Predict the 3D structure of the following.
Amino acid sequence: MDISFFSRGLIVGFSIAAPVGPIGVLCIRRTLAQGRAVGLISGLGAATADGLYGSIAGFGLTFISGFLVSQQVWLRIIGGIFLCYLGITTFLAKPAQSAAEATGKGLIGAYASTFFLTVTNPLTILSFAAIFAGLGVASAGSNYLDSGILVLGVFLGSAIWWLLLSTGVSILRKKFDDRSLIWINKISGLIIIIFGIIALLG
């Protein structure tokens, strides 16, 4: 067992999650509108998808990555349409008076939506493959234990980012009034719609 694979996985997971894209905007908005629990669970949905793609790259499952890349047009269309739908609902959403209760159904929906959005971006597998090669972990696929440690690191690295983001945003939540939240909904909705359109055009 090589513990360095775990630390490298942490770096990969964190670096993949940190750039603020449509998932980041969605998690920020959900944290402001519904509380830290919903924002964190949304992030964990993305972290699970990152772990899935990390396992494909780490275990050297080239036939799966090849299939995903070959179907990227349809996956981008599906993901783009879903992004546009979420953007429109976010734009039209009214601010909640208080953080929503962390009910099972609401948390499952938050988790599933971000997992689906992340997994419909098959180009993520290419990012993992490139970063793994750059960090010198491309050979992990020859050792299942090292690959498993690497994937665990990827998931936890991504999860740490979403924990930091949702916690930081929830601290700021009390400083926003209803008028501010309305504007946040509209701006977030527009940004998510733009990401959706880009995915469709891409």
